[in-house]
């Protein structure tokens, strides 16, 4: 039986720690390749194969790697079997993979131990046993090519000054969790081994913590899952994610993102196949999958300064009782089959070069995963938006409908704050770090810099959409888009990003449709009168100026508030609704945009009663409102000219139920709390920061008025 496995991006795949990134550095490059050539000969003697065009090479930049011979006269074509590792040389000790007879070669672990700890731990202890056998062991030609414990650079090996280079990054917590997990696994394994009577062929006392740490790192970074053997084991066994298989020689290849390769299992070997032509002198790379720098660091001990697949996982919690948590509970009730499934929340911020996007992905989704924006939108949604919530088996989101773009803008504002906070934290915690002194510190610097770059480039794109929401005369033509985008990008300090990144940001914005269908939906107080009929604009400005001035003088808490007064937006809401309600009798009509908005507000926020006095829940707000009520009563009796110019639009301002009456004002206050968006002020100013000290992040509140 011959099997075929397409494994370009296999689930659960683990690869090795590249010599160029972990086992070697510029100071201890061994010019001899003898041990690697011995590994090739050992593989061939056991029935393996290395394509004649391929040689093992070594240099300071890439370490040990596969290379097409420079004297090879033609390109190595696609579908070439570069390496065949015989099953006889693969290493595992899984009782689950019964279809393949993995040889013990002198290390016999008790069956009770294997059953108790599981296949992955079994393979880890088996590897320790083979390591301790030294030159007597069957796998000695393979094991002596592996990196030594002192050369490993995964975060679990960071201590002292090296660990300082991870300060402030998520790798600190991940490292602690990994060490705790490994310590628990080691102690449990040693207990089970003692209870089972030890291991035949090896003194169990030599199974030390340091050796376990090394073996675990090798398994995590270098082993393949059972899927790589799908041609020779059953489909059920191939699903076992904990089965770890070491493939000598195949696992020597360095990682190149998006390299086109696959692994094919036959009756007696596993083949490494290239799916692209490779020229003479070029490296033949492996592909560990679309790994981000955090995964590469945590599992392999290196990262890449220009990793196109880099992305950041955002930690987003749904507090008990929050809209997102409640929605998730409803989702489980609606789709009980989800209860038993392990569901991963895909909350990601992507590199602007991230290649694995659906062709029709929205511009915002090219840097923020849909699940992230959906979750933040739900967490920040108002009651009206939550009434429209869509819950399916695969998503919980606020649908795209009239009035719901506010949730998107609020989500982007929150994401912007998170991006700023993340970048500032990494800058601050790394401000005292100097030039790296070793390979660990060099990788940590690359990782920190890549994390900052992720947040800062994503910040430019998030703020572009928020910027569009502030462009009220922006029609969206190509020429106008380029002009507005040029002004937006001009806010980035000169030289902050390399030209290729600036170009990519521009491409991301221009080549994809935005989730925000309309421009110009967020307003300051000074911009609102322009939405009114021309005859109303000047009377509105004069009235608002007088009212806000009087209230500022009458209410101590409003001193110096000017247009930032909390009454500004509620007053405009009251005005628009009053004009809308009186328009039929007065013969004055609002523009269709305001008329639809007013009707929309009245539909979603039922108007106040006329026979009961309303009060808002917050006592401080209610006290402020009562002070404003008193100021308005004084103004109505002492300075009638303030409201007279608007009377033909609003109706009688002397009746109890007038447009700024206590009930209508409280109604508008509650609407204002729901229908505004707080946006960080000058967020791109972050990019000019030096990284030290605290930055005061101020926000500006805008009234949301949707386009039709």
UniProtKB/TrEMBL annotation:
Source species of the chain: Aspergillus heteromorphus CBS 117.55
PANTHER family: SET DOMAIN PROTEIN (AFU_ORTHOLOGUE AFUA_4G11040), UNCHARACTERIZED PUTATIVE METHYLTRANSFERASE
Protein name: SET domain protein
InterPro entries reported in the protein's UniProt record: SET_dom, SET_dom_sf, SETD3_SETD6_MTase
One Gene Ontology term of the molecular function aspect: protein-lysine N-methyltransferase activity
Limits of the SET domain: 169-289
């Amino acid at each position: 039986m011959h099997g075929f496995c397409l494994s370009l991006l296999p689930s659960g795949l683990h690869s090795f720690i590249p010599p160029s990134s972990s086992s070697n550095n510029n100071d201890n490059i061994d010019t001899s390749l003898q041990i690697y050539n011995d590994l090739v000969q050992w593989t061939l003697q056991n029935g393996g194969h290395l394509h004649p065009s391929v040689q093992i090479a070594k240099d300071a930049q890439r370490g040990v790697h596969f290379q097409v011979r420079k004297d090879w006269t033609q390109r190595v074509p696609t579908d070439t079997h570069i390496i065949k590792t015989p099953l006889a040389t693969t290493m595992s000790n899984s009782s689950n993979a019964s279809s393949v007879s993995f040889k013990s070669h002198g290390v016999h672990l008790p069956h009770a131990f294997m059953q108790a700890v599981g296949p992955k731990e079994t393979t880890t202890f088996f590897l320790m046993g083979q390591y301790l056998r030294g030159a007597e062991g069957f796998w000695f030609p393979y094991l002596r090519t592996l990196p030594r414990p002192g050369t490993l650079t995964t975060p679990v090996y960071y201590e002292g000054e090296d660990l300082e280079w991870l300060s402030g990054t998520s790798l600190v917590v991940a490292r602690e969790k990994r060490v705790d997990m490994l310590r628990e696994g080691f102690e449990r394994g040693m207990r089970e081994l003692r209870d089972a009577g030890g291991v035949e062929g090896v003194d169990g006392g030599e199974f030390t913590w340091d050796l376990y740490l090394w073996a675990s790192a090798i398994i995590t970074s270098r082993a393949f899952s059972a899927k790589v053997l799908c041609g020779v084991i059953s489909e059920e066994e191939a699903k076992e994610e904990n089965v770890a298989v070491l493939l000598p020689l195949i696992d020597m290849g360095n990682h190149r993102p998006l390299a086109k390769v696959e692994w094919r299992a036959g009756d007696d070997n596993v083949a490494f196949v290239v799916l692209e032509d490779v020229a003479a002198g070029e490296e033949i790379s492996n592909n560990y999958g679309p790994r981000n720098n955090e995964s590469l660091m945590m599992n392999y001990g290196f990262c890449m300064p220009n990793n196109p697949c880099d992305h950041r996982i955002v930690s987003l919690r749904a507090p008990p009782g929050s809209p997102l948590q409640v929605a998730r509970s409803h989702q489980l009730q609606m789709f009980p089959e989800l209860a038993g499934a392990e569901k991963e929340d895909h909350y990601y911020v992507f590199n602007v070069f991230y290649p694995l996007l659906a062709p029709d992905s929205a511009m915002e989704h090219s840097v923020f995963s849909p699940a992230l924006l959906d979750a933040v939108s739900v967490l920040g949604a108002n009651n009206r938006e939550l009434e429209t919530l869509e819950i399916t088996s695969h998503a919980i989101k606020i649908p795209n409908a009239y009035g719901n773009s506010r949730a998107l803008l609020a989500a982007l504002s929150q994401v912007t704050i998170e991006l700023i906070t993340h970048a500032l934290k990494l800058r601050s915690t790394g401000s005292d770090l100097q030039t790296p002194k070793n390979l660990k510190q060099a990788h940590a610097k690359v990782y920190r810099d890549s994390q900052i770059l992720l947040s800062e480039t994503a910040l430019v794109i998030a703020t572009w959409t928020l910027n569009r929401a502030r462009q009220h005369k922006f029609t969206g033509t190509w020429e106008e888009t380029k002009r507005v985008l040029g002004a937006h990008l001009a806010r980035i300090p000169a030289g902050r990003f390399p030209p290729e990144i600036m170009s990519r940001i521009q491409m991301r914005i221009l080549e994809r449709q935005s989730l925000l269908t309309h421009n110009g939906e967020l307003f300051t107080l000074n911009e609102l009168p322009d939405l009114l009929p021309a005859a109303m604009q000047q009377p509105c400005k004069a009235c608002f100026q007088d009212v806000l001035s009087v209230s500022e003088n009458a209410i101590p808490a409003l001193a110096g508030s000017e247009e930032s007064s909390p009454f500004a937006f509620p007053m405009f809401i009251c005005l628009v609704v009053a004009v809308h309600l009186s328009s039929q009798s007065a013969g004055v009509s609002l523009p269709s945009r305001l008329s639809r908005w007013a009707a929309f507000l009245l539909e979603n926020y039922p108007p106040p009663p006329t026979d009961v006095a309303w009060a808002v829940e917050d006592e401080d707000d209610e006290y402020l409102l009562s002070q404003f009520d008193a100021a308005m009563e004084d103004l109505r009796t002492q300075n009638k000219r303030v409201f007279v110019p608007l009377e033909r639009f609003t109706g009688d301002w002397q009746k109890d139920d007038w447009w700024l009456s206590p009930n209508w004002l409280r109604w508008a206050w509650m609407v204002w709390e729901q229908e505004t968006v707080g946006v960080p002020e000058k967020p791109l100013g972050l990019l000019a920061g030096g990284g030290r000290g605290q930055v005061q992040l101020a926000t500006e509140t805008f009234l949301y008025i949707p386009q039709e």
